[in-house]
Amino acid sequence: VQLQASGGGSVQAGGSLRLSCAASGVINQIDTMGWYRQAPGKQRELVATITDGGSTNYADSVKGRFTIARDNVRSTVSLQMNSLKAEDTSTYYCYCDGILWGTSVNYWGKGTQVTVSS
Question: By percentage, how much of the chain surpasses pLDDT 70?
């Protein structure tokens, strides 16, 4: 499975960006899709995830500002980021997990950079 992300860029604090990610390739079932981020010198952290049933989970730092959505037919996940802050500056990674021939698998996309200037 390949995860192709798009939508990163630079924006001023208070602005908005939308990230999108499309999964392609062979997988029997995609369970969770989501976004993580990693800033230089820091550990990768969860931003938001969404299950195939639509249950969402957000980091406390982004609740009320970010919205994750998913299209199960197209195997895509998006992240609408509003009221961006300088501390949201990071490399964002698309993620999915699921089942391939009875085995649990997970995949990561290449990162997309989000830079928020104050």
Answer: 100
Measured over the CA atoms of residue 94, residue 80, residue 10 and residue 12, the dihedral's sign is negative
By the 10 Å C-beta count (0-12 exposed, 13-18 middle, 19+ buried), 68 is classed as: buried
Residues comprising the chain, all counted: 118
C-alpha pair distances (Å), 26 with each of 47, 54, 66, 78 = 26, 22, 29, 21
pLDDT at 26 over 90: no
Answer whether 96's CB lies under 8 Å from 3's CB: yes
pLDDT above 90 for 28? no
**91: Cβ contacts below 8 Å, ≥ 6 apart:** 37, 38, 39, 111, 112, 113, 114
